[in-house]
Amino acid sequence: MAQKPCIFLVEDDLSFGAVLKSYLEISDFDVVWVDDGQHAVGQFKKTNFNICILDVMLPNVDGFTIAAEIRKLNSEIPILFLTAKNMREDVLKGYRIGADDYITKPFDTEVLIYKLKSILKRQSGSQAKESDFYQIGTYLFDYKLRTVDRDNVKQKLSPKEAELLKMLCDNQNELLPRETALKKIWGDDGYFTARSMDVYLTKLRKLFIEDSSVEIRNIHGSGFMLEIKNY
């Protein structure tokens, strides 16, 4: 039996922490939970974890400080911040420290699971190897030539459309977080670049309109998913 991914959870709200720990465990994760920031780094050293979920607002030592210390010990482990705040400067501070993602309370637990699985999939390298060709339903996407072909009819993509479609393909049937795509393709996750990406997504959706098995879905405002149904 495959070993479950182990999550390091740092959350000071006892009721919320207990509920979240239980939900993660029934979602097939092992969880080590710490409820006080001053004990976090010491506990982190005791176990080999696959991912960290850190609350930002903690007693004694805040989540950003813990993340910075964890980064000194392990530069590769994914870190996801939990916060009740949604201030731009806090989000940027988290990403500068090396956060892989951010989720604001209250949140949809299904979205959290999507995010965790997506981060772990990228981290483990279990996704498909780098490829120039992707089969998307009845379409063939040539990443190198930036074309989508169906019934010998080729449609040309812009460079950003090709990059975005490749990221969706590499995360097929998994959540592609909005911030991840914005940072990788545009280098910025501001309002105007987000609106620009929405325009590109609309164009990509139109490409696959003739095949009902292909859908680019919005996932609760947190990101997107290229879903390919098998009939």
Q: What can you see in these coordinates?
A:
By secondary structure, the protein is an alpha/beta fold. It has two domains: 6-124, Response regulator (Rossmann fold, 3-Layer(aba) Sandwich); 133-228, Orthogonal Bundle (Arc Repressor Mutant, subunit A). 40% of the residues lie in helices and 23% in strands. It is built from eight helices and twelve strands. It has helices at 14-26, 40-44, 63-73, 88-97, 109-124, 159-170, 178-186, 191-207, and strands at 6-10, 30-34, 51-55, 79-83, 101-104, 133-136, 139-142, 147-150, 153-156, 176-177, 214-219, 223-228. The strands form three sheets. It has a five-stranded parallel beta sheet with strand order 2-1-3-4-5, with helices on both faces. β1 (6-10), α1 and β2 (30-34) form a beta-alpha-beta unit. α6 crosses α8 (191-207). The longest helix has 17 residues, at 191-207. The radius of gyration is 19 Å and the shape is elongated. The two termini are 30 Å apart. The mean pLDDT is 86.
Describe the structure using short key phrases.
alpha/beta; Arc Repressor Mutant, subunit A; 12 strands; 8 helices; 2 domains; four-stranded antiparallel sheet; 231 residues; Rossmann fold
SSE topology sketch:
Layout: E1 6-10, H1 14-26, E2 30-34, H2 40-44, E3 51-55, H3 63-73, E4 79-83, H4 88-97, E5 101-104, H5 109-124, E6 133-136, E7 139-142, E8 147-150, E9 153-156, H6 159-170, E10 176-177, H7 178-186, H8 191-207, E11 214-219, E12 223-228
Parallel strand pairs: 1-2, 1-3, 3-4, 4-5
Antiparallel strand pairs: 6-7, 7-8, 8-9, 10-12, 11-12
